[in-house]
Amino acid sequence: MISAELTGILAQRLDTAQTSRRDTPSLADGHELDIDDAYAVQAGLLALRQARGERIVGVKLGFTSKAKMAQMGVSDVIVGRLTDAMRIADGGEVDLSRFIHPKAEPEVAYRISRDVDLDDPSADIVSCVDAMAPAIEVIDSRYRDFRFTYTDVVADNTSASAFAIGPWRPVENVADRAVRLRTGGQEATGSTAAILGDPVNALHALLDMARRRRIPLEAGQVVLAGAATAALPLTAGITECEVAGVGSVTMKGC
Ligand code: 0L1
Ligand code: MG
Known about the structure:
With about 250 residues, this protein is α+β, with helices and mostly antiparallel strands. Helices cover about 25% and strands about 30% of the residues. The chain has helices at about 5-20, 35-50, 65-70, 150-155, 200-215, and strands spanning about 55-60, 80-85, 85-90, 95, 105-110, 130-140, 160-165, 180-185, 185-190, 220-225, 230-235, 235-245, 245-254. The longest helix has 17 residues, at about 5-20. It binds hexanedioic acid and magnesium ion. The site of magnesium ion has 9 residues, from strand 1, strand 5, strand 6 and strand 10.
């Protein structure tokens, strides 16, 4: 376990990388972090953002595909936090100069309508969610060339950087819906099944992680369930995510 002082130093290093748009080497080059250390650095990073006036507005899951878990040699999802400064309006402009090397992911978002009681063993997170929507997540690892270890990426708030959410609609079963992401001249297609077999499973995985990591899940927050395809480099112009039967969302890189 690393010291509180080192936790703060590493959080500051990642925060500076983000605010200065200058990447940083892996924390594993020189430090031995375990997963608890990594979530402590993430909490320190969030505290720095909150000290600048940012508000936490949701959570996101990463490593929700079997391929990504296998690549990283892990069997657990990872959780990061979303702030209001990361939010882009549906159809809104996003200044690409605020990122280091952004990538877009097509996702499904859920809206939490009731606080989730993490201490209630019978809590049903699905009944605490009242809407779903198509979403785009912009990930922007603060590490050089997107090269990181499992603990690195957790410390870096799971590469969370920006997100846009399309029109909300009632929650329904979207276990295997076609998903298309377009950005610049590139396109990625896939299925919501890539998100833990069914995006609703992301909610169950989130509740488990929230209990273990004491992450509050509160009414009004949004949940990004995970990527349905591999990420594509985010380019200038329109980026669009379409989820069959759920809708679409766009952002415009400038
Ligand atoms: O799925 C994600 O939101 C990405 C999690 C972090 C890994 C990455 O930056 O590729
Ligand atoms: Mg994502």
